[in-house]
Amino acid sequence: MKEPKTAGEITQGEQSGAGERTIHRRNFFKLLGGGIAVVLSYSDLFALPGLLRSEGEPSLADAARVDDNSIAAWIHIRENGTVAVYTGKVEVGQNIRTSLAQVVAEELAVSVGSIEMVMGDTLLTPYDRGTFGSRTTPTMGPQLRKAAASLKEVLADMAAAHWKTAKGSVQCKDGRVVHTESGKTLGYGEITKGKKIVIPLNDKVALTPADQWTVAGTPVPKVNGRSFVSGKHKYVSDMVLPGMVYGKILRAPSYGASLVSADLEKARLSAAVTVVKENDFIGVTAPDPQTAASALARIDARWNSTPQPSRADIFKYLKDNARQTDAGNNTKEAAEKAFAAATVQLRQHFEVQYIAHVPLEPRAALAIWENGRLTVWTGTQRPFGVQEELAEAFSLSKEKIRVMMPDTGSAYGGKHSGEAALEAARLARAVGKPVKVVWTREEEFKWAYLRPGGLIEVAASVSTDGTVTSWEFHNYNSGNAGIETPYEAGATHIRFHPSDTPLKQGSYRGLAATANIFAMESVMDDLARMVKKDPLEFRLHNLKDERLRNVLHAAAEKFGWQKEKKAGHGHGIACGFVKNSYIATCVEVAYDKSAEQLKILRVVAAYDCGTVINPVHLENQVMGCILQGLGGALFEEIDFMDGRILNPSLSSYRVPRFDDIPLLDIVVLNRKDIPSAGAGETPIVAIAPAIRNAIADATGIKLNALPLIPQGLKTNS
Amino acid sequence: MKINVNSTDYNLDVPDNTSLLDALRVHLNLTGSKYGCGEGACGACKVLIDGRAVASCITPVASVQNKSIITIEGLEKDGKLHPVQQAFLDEDAFQCAYCSSGMIISAVGLKTKNPKPSRQQVIEAMQGNICRCCVYPRIINAIIKA
């Protein structure tokens, strides 16, 4: 079926003979308004059901649902010349709203201020798996650069055609095409006014090299910063809809407990309170959160508990329940043989406690049902994932569910899931009103998920000249991120053994790289001391990776690694490489033996993530990683017994505060010759081992557990 | 009961044990002050009560009648940001910015008493505020420069 052409509706596809695919552009512009848009390709946009639907609201998001690995985005220049960028990525404080706008501004030759970033909306933005794994900058960034450059190229061509001049005689500047000879200009919006043009992304379009950037690569301030410092930004937990009520959910007393019975009568405080019970789900709604909480507290519920592991025996439990993955290979034998032959051998084991993300804005969702359609605003790193969770929970097609994600009060890997969205939607369906659910801090500690705890066992050997000859490394439960050693380590046998976690666990900034690199870099330091080598020299001796060597050198130089230490002071160094970026961290600690007081005096970190897009926001990410990592390094730990979290509050679970912060120097190696990597995770991995190694240097005490000193340092430990 | 927020009188019909934070957020729709912990441990909910930064989540609204309450929404004057707000903006002293309201209120409380605080004085005064994104060094710089 072919639609008749109308004046002003052209596509490049038609010109190049792809006319069949242009038939549904009308739906596209129904949502966008007129102008010019660039999309990934026609096959992505037009061969898909979202735009083929003749009834109901077409979803732009469905258009790019080619496969779950697609990196889709589109840019639309509106008739008024403003630019709208549509991406399924979300903003949780990492400032990609700003950095993605910067790369578009750079390639499209417009100001950052003229760009509106439409993000994380399952109706308007293309499908996206989620904002995690440091993927936005290396994948979405280049895609948007190409899209913007493709648009600019077409706009220049159109203006040249308008002036009947050669392509080479026009250039783009500040949202206008300039005819260089005559000085005549045309705004982007003027060029495309009254037209509805969709162009495919030109994968081979020329991009502006990083060393010629004028907008990208500069410290553009957070684009909507003013709304945050004035308290005007509406986080999900701040949102209100007319007729909205507040929801609270009944929680089990411990993990693994099942509901036996519940007397709901006493909770019905007034006509304004509704108690909802659907199987084991029990919740209440009320016109204000205080009433909802009071009603919830009056529910008399009986639970059946089952015995659960406690923190005291967690590491034995994790190892006993681990799946052995050594079978079917002979690297273990080779590593054991090399170990046995070595004169200097070391066996260490490391314990890493479960820790919590503690995003300062707890999970929150606002849900409304209208004519069988569900709309949810929620703070999540995966709006499309939450859409899928909702579709499954309510047996609803995804097209009937819209999930939106306003800029959210942080996540750190802790908001991949849609618990609050499901709860708000369930209550809203039951009471027939919009419902907002905001978790309490206690709920966030108990019922969100945690960074996994884990046990790591290492056996390593080294020759007397300081060459590592064998490396056997086993991680139980915490994960395999960062588990491979970057060193030339002789015969290696490296395994991750998944286990049966008694606590709910999931992603966390840097994943298990924090645990694995803690163990790895502690062992490297101990090996260096065993063969009486300087820890930096020892690392460099066993390391070929140029970029990792560079950050080690840069950190050591800024820190003054070779300088004399004061009495009672210790120096520690560690490095790590994950997700295409490189960190090295040096730490100086001071130890007062008589008072058993340890102080982290200063931290120097050198970081290389390729080309820097925003130096200030990059520094904030590195700073945030290192200082957040300080908590997990020194004192953060979830305490639990028999399925109950014992420290579910900010007065009992300690996170870094102002007076925990050492002097911090960050050196960024801006490698303009290398594509940008994401920077929100890697810098966290080296702080814990650097502190551990500095403590060993100052005191001789080798601490092999994270957190290192939850109760302060005791010399007899 | 009657409370005065940002120089405006409000009549509230709420139970006496309602927290000031709930009164502001739920009943007056002043949502700039944030919930972070409910026990006065994180500082996200701080407001100025007679010029002093106080955690509104553990302050009963009934206890602050006849007092002057200033929230983050009340710091701007004639469309111009308070110098502390401007300094946070200039220094990019936030990431997710959920803590910013409480941080700024605490800093304004400090600056009112001590316009030129030292680094150590800033750290001591801000100890009750958590920035979970941990851009503490930038916050310290912003407060000193404001």
CATH superfamily of the largest domain in chain B: Beta-grasp domain
Side-by-side strand order of the widest sheet of chain B: 2-1-5-3-4
Low-confidence stretches of chain B: none
How would you write the strand order of the largest sheet of chain A? 11-12-9-18-15-16-17
Number of domains of chain B: 2
Biggest sheet descriptor of chain A: 7 strands, mixed
Structural class of chain A: alpha/beta
> What fraction, in percent, of the residue positions of chain A are helical?
25-40%
- Strand share of the residues of chain B? 5-15%
Task: Give me the CATH fold name of the largest domain in chain A.
Answer: Aldehyde Oxidoreductase, domain 4
| N-end to C-end Cα span of chain A | 79 Å
Short description:
With 717 residues, chain A is α/β, with parallel strands linked by helices. Helices cover 29% and strands 23% of the residues of chain A.
What would you note in describing this structure?
Chain A is of the alpha/beta class. Chain A contains 20 helices and 28 strands. Chain A has 3 domains: about 10-230, 2-Layer Sandwich (Aldehyde Oxidoreductase, domain 4), CATH 3.30.365; about 240-305 and about 365-440, 2-Layer Sandwich (Aldehyde Oxidoreductase, domain 4), CATH 3.30.365.10; about 320-355 and about 450-705, Aldehyde oxidase/xanthine dehydrogenase, molybdopterin binding domain (Aldehyde Oxidoreductase, domain 4, 2-Layer Sandwich). Chain A is globular, with a radius of gyration of 28 Å. By secondary structure, chain B is α+β, with helices and mostly antiparallel strands. Chain B has 2 domains: about 1-75, Beta-grasp domain (Ubiquitin-like (UB roll)), CATH 3.10.20.30; about 85-145, Orthogonal Bundle (DNA polymerase, domain 1), CATH 1.10.150.120. In chain B, helix 2 crosses helix 5. Chain B is globular, with a radius of gyration of 15 Å. At the A-B interface, helix 9 and helix 19 of A face helix 1, helix 2, helix 3, helix 4 and helix 5 of B.
